[in-house]
Amino acid sequence: MTVTRRTSKNVLLDTALSNFYGAADEMGLEDGLVEILSRPERAISVSLPVVMDDGSTRVFEGYRVQHSTALGPAKGGFRYHPDVDIEECEALGSLMTWKCSLAGIPYGGGKGGVSCDPLELSTSERERMTRTFAARISPIIGDWIDIPAPDVNTGAPEMVWFMDTISKMRGRLEPGVVTGKPISIWGSRGRTAATGVGVAICVKELLESEKVDIKGARVIIQGFGNVGTYNARSLVKYGAKIVGIADMTGGYHVPGGIDIERAFEHVTNHPKKLLEGYTQPGLEKLSAEDILLVDAEVLSPCALEGAINAKNAGRVRAKYIVEGANGPVTPDADAILSDKGILLVPDFLANSGGVIGSYFEWVQNQNGFFWTEDEYNHRLIPIMTDNFYRVWNYSKAHEVKMRRAAFLVAIKRVADAVKMRGIFL
Ligand code: NAD
Predict the structure, then answer these.
(1) What pLDDT is attached to residue 94?
(2) 6-24 pLDDT, tens per residue?
(3) Choosing from 75, 111, 204, 319, which is the catalytic residue?
(4) Residue to mutate (ligand 1; options 79, 222, 226; most atoms within 8 A of CB)
């Protein structure tokens, strides 16, 4: 039997499918499993009538796609953006399947969203839209079915409205139905820092494996938001020297090392959470792009997708790249960096502290018992470290790049689960 190879006009889905088929071929995955894993288990569209503040009614389109539940309930955020459609949700849902699998947590993958321009909506319109979305996808949502989370343009308020709506509809509190809730409403201590802490663990283990002393190792971090700041703060605790940081206001280079706690305080107090106006002795102001080209041991892009691309990859001087953002290195840049001998830790390993953190929130919700931040980190560190070495060892044993190794390890775990559980009927 020849497997029909799916393609898509949606670039994200087409890339996700071709990456999957490429890895499936390389690992010799049997045809039936290729067929199963190249399709989502379930994909639904819902229409969302919302009464606007001016009294008119608008109908929005919403989606929820469950790519796989072989390893556990589907897990993945929902986003509010004009580009959201069912194919984008399918692509992002499949990436969640691989990310959760690699992370070693008992979840499958899913994604959802509503096609809308969130900037056009008032807070009360957002609330009504979120509650209608929760109600319409409620039949396929639950703490053992599918657990949404924040994504682009959704955050703690949307998670609380979502949980409250499901709880009221079911007549019982359903805290574990979404993650990313505020600490005061069944959220988790430690979650805010988890992604950045996880990226820093990957930097530390990578340097250790390469016999580079982290004490004094020079690191550049692009993006000084949630992921970038906690990555930087953790690395400083490990003894690294952060010589460059950047946000949308530009690059900040200090060869002797940036005072990260001071920079963190600066962005925390800035009305737009930016580095704008940050200064310290020895600081040289660069553009946000040029910071990527500064000489250092490690470069950790934690801002945008496509930050390192065919135009600038050839000029990157760092020896190691650890991806904090999703997709910060384009595929053609990947090949250039590889030719230069730069070693790269891929996004869905390096930034998986976020989804592991969501899992911890859900575990606490199941028990109604909350951990301290120390307990949380105490559990996060060994999981991230194990995951790093699982990929590192596979990459060495099979002589493949870390990105390919991560993908192969992730697909194998899901394929094994599908096989063991068997096909029903
Ligand atoms: P954030 O909005 O908190 O921070 C983004 C940072 O990038 C800001 O400092 C912003 O100023 C900066 N930035 C924007 N444009 C820039 C430019 N042109 N040049 C340099 N810097 C620029 O976002 P975040 O939560 O830290 O997420 C960053 C990345 O990590 C995204 O790709 C996100 O998908 C990914 N990610 C985040 C999490 C999480 O838990 N927050 C988990 C997994 C992956």
Answers:
(1) 97
(2) 999 998 899 899 989 999 9
(3) 111
(4) 226
How far apart CA 402 and CA 387 sit, in angstroms, is 12
Q: Report the sign of the C-alpha dihedral through residues 206, 212, 213, 217, in that order.
A: negative
State residue 1's pLDDT score.
58
b/e burial code for range 171-184 (CB count within 10 A of at least 16 → b)? eeebbbbbbbbeee
Q: Where do you find CATH 3.40.50.720 in the chain?
A: 194-350
Quote the Cα angle for 407-356-166, to 5°. 115
Q: How far is the CA of 353 from the centre of ligand 1 (A)?
A: 15
d(CA 199, CA 230): 9
pLDDT in the model for residue 305: 85
111 catalytic per annotation:
yes
248 CA to centre of ligand 1 in angstroms:
10
The tokens describing 184, both together, are 């005061």
Q: Residue 122 has which token pair?
A: 């008032």
Ligand 1 contacts CB of residue 225 (under 6 A): yes
Element holding 95 (H helix, E strand): helix 86-103
Whose CA is closest to atom 19 on ligand 1?
Answer: 248
Residue 228 alpha carbon to ligand 1 centre in Å: 7
pLDDT in tens, 173-217: 999 999 999 999 999 999 999 999 999 999 999 999 999 999 999
Token reading at 377: 């980190």
Collect the ranges in the chain with pLDDT lower than 70: 1-2, 425
pLDDT value of residue 304: 85
* H or E, element range at 46: strand 42-51
In the chain, the N- to C-terminal Cα span, in Å, equals 21
- 190 with 377: CB under 8 angstroms? yes
| CATH numeric code, 40-177 | 3.40.50.10860
| Range list for CATH 3.40.50.10860 in the chain | 40-177
Classify residue 83 by its DSSP letter: T
State the CATH class of domain 194-350.
alpha beta
